[in-house]
Amino acid sequence: MRAQRSKVIAAAFSVLLILGFSDVALAHGVTGKDALYIQSVSGPAIGPFLYLGAKHMVTGYDHLLFLFGVIFFLYRLKDVVQYVTLFTIGHSLTLLLGVLGGIRANPFIIDAIIGLSVAYKAFDNMDGFKCLFGFQPNTKIAVMVFGLFHGFGLATKLQEFTLPKNGLATNILSFNVGVELGQVIALTGVLIILSYWRRTPSFLRDAFVANTVLMGCGFLLVGYQLSGYLLSKA
User: Fold this and answer.
1) Whose CA is closest to 114, among 15, 177, 230, 29?
2) What is the pLDDT of residue 40?
3) pLDDT band at 13 (very low <50, low <70, confident <90, very high)
4) How many whole angstroms from its chain centre is CA 125?
5) Using CA atoms, how far apart are residues 96 and 112, in angstroms rounded to an integer?
6) Segments making up each domain of the chain, as ranges
7) Read out DSSP for 132-158?
8) pLDDT of 23 higher than 50
9) What is the C-alpha to C-alpha distance for residues 170 and 96, in angstroms, rounded to an integer?
10) pTM of the prediction?
C-alpha cells in the first residue's frame, strides 16, 4: 500500500514537472493586463507590485523547478532556509541591477542558462558529478550563481517595457519582495508534499525517476531557448 502511494506521488511530481515545462516559456514573462498595468502606473504602487511579484513566482515554473531540485534532499529546515536565502540574494541582486541599473543581456541566452540550472541540479541530485567525474561541485556557490541568472531572466523581460520613472525604485523593490513572498508560499506546499513522500519506503528509487524527468525538462528548455536565439539572428 505504501509502495503504491509512493508511486502515485512520484508520478504526480513527474506530471507536474512536464506540465511545468509546457508553460515554462511563458512563466518568465509579464503579459496581458499585468504588462499594461506596469507600463501605465505612475508613482509608488506597493500593494499591486507585491501581488505581481508573488504571482510571478507562484506561476514561474522555471524558478520552482530549480528550487524543487535544490530542496529535494534537504531534510533540515535550517538547510532549506540557507539554500533558499542564497538563491534569493542572487535573484534579488540581478533583478534590481537589471531594471534599475540598466544592465542588459540577451534574454534567450539567460533563459537557456536558467534551463541549464534545472538540469544541473537534477544531475547533482543523481550524484552524476561524483559518478562520472569523481568530484562534487560546491552546491551553495552553484545555487547562488544560478540565482543571479534567474533574477536576470525576469529583468530582461521587464526591460522590454517602457517603465514610468516616477516611483520606479519603490515599485521594483515591492515587486522583488512579492517574488520572495510567492517563493515562500510555493516552497511551503512543495515541502509538505516532499515530507510525506520521504516517509514512504521507495522514496529513493522514485526520486531517481523524478530527477531524471526534471533534468529532461531543463534540457528541453535549453534547446527551446537556443532555438529562439538562432531564429532571432536569422
Assistant:
1) 29
2) 82
3) low
4) 16
5) 21
6) 2-233
7) HHS----HHHHHHHHHHHHHHHHHHHH
8) no
9) 11
10) 0.84
State the Cα–Cα distance between residues 182 and 227, nearest whole angstrom. Answer: 30
Q: Residue 7 pLDDT > 80, yes or no?
A: no
Residue 162 burial by CB count (10 A; 0-12/13-18/19+): exposed, middle or buried?
exposed
CA distance 66 to 115: 9
Instruction: Give phi and psi for 202, each to the nearest 5.
Output: -100, 20
Amino acid letter, 142: A
Please give the share of the chain, as a percent, with pLDDT higher than 90.
38
* Distant-in-sequence, close-in-space partners of 124: CB < 8 Å, separation ≥ 6: 69, 137, 139, 142
Answer for the pair 120, 150: CB distance below 8 angstroms, yes or no. Answer: no
Asked if 27 contacts 60 with a C-beta cutoff of 8 angstroms, the reply is: yes
Grid cell for residue 214? 526534471
In this prediction, residue 234 carries a pLDDT of 72
